[in-house]
Amino acid sequence: LIMSDRGLVFSAGRPNQRVSAAAAAASGSSNKSLKGIIAGGITGGMEICITFPTEYVKTQLQLDEKVGAQKRYKGPIDCVKVTVRERGFFGLYRGLSVLLYGSIPKSAVRFGAFEEFKKRNSDAQGNLSTGRKFLCGLGAGICEAIFAVTPMETVKVKFINDQNSANPKFRGFFHGVREIVREQGLRGCYQGLTATMMKQGSNQAIRFLVVESLKDWYRGYRGDTDNTRPIPKLLTGMFGAVAGAASVFGNTPIDVVKTRMQGLEAHKYRSTAHCFVKIWREEGLKAFYKGTVPRLSRVCLDVGITFMIYDSFMELFNKIWK
């Protein structure tokens, strides 16, 4: 008789065999979460170097609050042209270090948390129900929002905004962090926490639900009962792109509010709700979908690449790390 997370289980065999099997299972489960953290961190660093220019354009468009002819950019293509003309090609990479420092822990927390939640909520065969896929993704998104995304995104948006001001005051990432903490306290790095939790939670809930569901569908179509068998990486990337597109249309308004709450003009808003109402009244519904085109292309590429890289490293770790 063995006590497990799912209750009492009757097991045949000699005591030493049962103890060894239980220890191996526990070790494997623990390792999977750790593998998820390491693979996630590597994935985050590689992915952001590829997709940063579209993130830069999206942020610039969302911070462009002027109306009509006063707007600095006519659209995403114009934003790219203006940036390259004024600052050169590498102007599209201004603020990369800030996002790179944030992307690695963000991805590590997200995938590590998901693997942990998945381990605790899957059935005896390692399968998750549709509802539990959604909840595991939601939990992973909330964890990354609290422990990584909010402070790093706040610094990133302030840094990019500062670099485009007439007299930039941040000399670099760490200098920017010191200035923000000195002037606004630790709270200055946690502006827009509620909006970020909503954004990341809904993002990852949708993405993991879609990707895991598509993987299960493919295994069923293939007649494969082994859910640990690798899926072709190109197909995984396609599943990720579909998941990314689904998440964009679901939470772009939340992303706009989050960006405003974390910008240098955040003092204009008393709360996340006040920011939402103010944008609605002064700029209309269209303002909530600023940056949708560059965000859609970025997110589809981002999520597709992320799941391809992550699955590749997890497959490698499972071979060499027992």
TrEMBL record:
Membrane topology: Multi-pass membrane protein
Swiss-Prot/TrEMBL keywords: Membrane, Mitochondrion, Repeat, Transmembrane, Transmembrane helix, Transport
Entry similarity comment: Belongs to the mitochondrial carrier (TC 2.A.29) family.
Keyword field contains Repeat: yes
GO biological process, alphabetically ordered: mitochondrial citrate transmembrane transport
Family matches, as Pfam families: Mito_carr (PF00153)
Primary location: mitochondrion
Subcellular location: Mitochondrion membrane
The keyword Mitochondrion belongs to this UniProt entry's keyword annotation: yes
Identification of the protein by name: Citrate transport protein
Top-level taxon: Eukaryota
SUPFAM superfamilies assigned: Mitochondrial carrier
GO MF annotations, alphabetized: citrate secondary active transmembrane transporter activity
Solcar repeats: 31-120, 131-217, 231-316
